[in-house]
Amino acid sequence: MPRAGEPNEEFHVTVQPIRLFGDPVLRTPADPVVDFDAELRKLVADLVETMQEQSGAGLAAPQLGVGLRVFAFDVDDVVGHIVNPQVSFPDDEEQDGPEGCLSIPGIYVDTKRRMNAVATGFNQFGDPIKLVGTGLMARCVQHETDHLDGVLFLDRLDAGARKEAMKEIRQAEWYDAGAPPVVKTSPHGGAAFGLGGVR
């Protein structure tokens, strides 16, 4: 995805702090973008810069504390973003593998996802785009779209795996014990499939 907007626009791109598990913004559904303006293009640039600084495969706006339906991705040397994504699944094929989240650092748990996903939405200028993903890209699309719905990949785990993950989280240096966990369900494909921070 482009680092900035139109050629005559210059943004001071800044690596932003990533909100961590327990922050209420991560559990709040994001609002659709209605203004495709310079502020949105600055957000997209910040998402890409922060994601790449943290070596992430994806980063959603709520992870920067911004409640808008936008995420950036960097998978297999494909860097981009999508605004107001709508996700569909062309088949029922599944994948199961390790998933993590930049908002839950250091925790990786095998998580079931759909193998193939299609996201339709817009770029930062309001032009329609379509993102067809398989494997890691499909996982990223699902994970980041879940973030836009206030859902974390932990919500996709069975009770046993979630309990183990929470045990690891409670032992992590960054964990804030004052923020109790909340489990939510994504409207995208049922409890067995979700979207979380990848890589």
Automatic annotation (TrEMBL):
Top EC category = hydrolase
Per its UniProt record, what Pfam families does this chain match? Pep_deformylase
The UniProt keyword set, sorted, is: Hydrolase, Iron, Metal-binding, Protein biosynthesis
Co-factor remark: Binds 1 Fe(2+) ion.
Spell out the catalytic residues. 144
Catalytic activity reads:
N-terminal N-formyl-L-methionyl-[peptide] + H2O = N-terminal L-methionyl-[peptide] + formate
InterPro entries recorded for this chain?
Peptide_deformylase, Peptide_deformylase_sf
- What are the binding positions for Fe cation in this chain? 101, 143, 147
**Cofactor(s) this protein cannot do without:** Fe(2+)
Reported EC number(s) for this entry are 3.5.1.88
What's the stated role of this polypeptide?
Answer: Removes the formyl group from the N-terminal Met of newly synthesized proteins. Requires at least a dipeptide for an efficient rate of reaction. N-terminal L-methionine is a prerequisite for activity but the enzyme has broad specificity at other positions.
The family line of this record is: Belongs to the polypeptide deformylase family.
Q: What is this protein called?
A: Peptide deformylase
Q: Which organism is it from?
A: Asanoa iriomotensis
Q: In the UniProt record, what gene is named as encoding this protein?
A: def_2
